[in-house]
Specification:
- The chain has 141 residues and is an alpha+beta fold.
- The protein has a single domain (3-140), classed as Roll (Nuclear Transport Factor 2, Chain: A).
- 33% of the residues lie in helices and 40% in strands.
- A six-stranded mixed beta sheet has the order 2-1-6-5-4-3.
- A hairpin with a 4-residue loop joins strand 1 (27-34) and strand 2.
- The longest helix has 14 residues, at 43-56.
Length: 141
């Protein structure tokens, strides 16, 4: 069990558009954040990325349930992200499972890599493209 991972997850889950200045308590100045859709380098760019993210959604929450430390300064968090965007899925709540791989030193993350299904997060929620992706998934299964 990792006290760092639990603390990071707790603080990350409390983030919102009003407290993004606290990202500096979680991430190093030269942090790199990657997910299937973006790569962001540096704390200032990370703050701008999160500001844009929070301004585009009407609701965003993370439920962390897995805390797996691999070695000193390295571990995984498993989570469910729930979000609501006014132009996706008719404004309904969307849930996506994922995990984060973190590298940290001196109690700050310097590398954060998220893994999740980008189709479930975004593409399947778009009106025309989502219909085509869901049809294709049914055909392939």
């Amino acid at each position: 069990m990792s006290d760092f991972l639990h603390g990071f997850a707790h603080a990350f889950a409390r983030l919102n558009k009003h407290n993004l200045a606290t990202l500096g308590e979680l991430y190093s100045i030269d942090a790199v954040f990657c997910d299937p859709l973006h790569e962001v380098r540096g704390l200032n760019n990370l703050q701008a990325y999160f500001a844009q993210l929070y301004s585009n959604v009407s609701e965003l929450a993370f439920d962390f349930y897995g805390f797996d430390q691999v070695s000193e300064g390295q571990g995984y968090l498993r989570w469910t992200m729930s979000y609501r965007h006014p132009r996706l899925a008719g404004g309904q709540l969307i849930r996506v499972e994922g995990c984060s791989y973190l590298l940290w030193s001196d109690a700050k993350v310097y590398r954060h890599r998220d893994y999740f299904d980008a189709g479930a997060l975004l593409y399947e929620q778009l009106p025309l493209l989502g219909t085509a992706i869901r049809w294709l998934k049914r055909r392939l299964s």
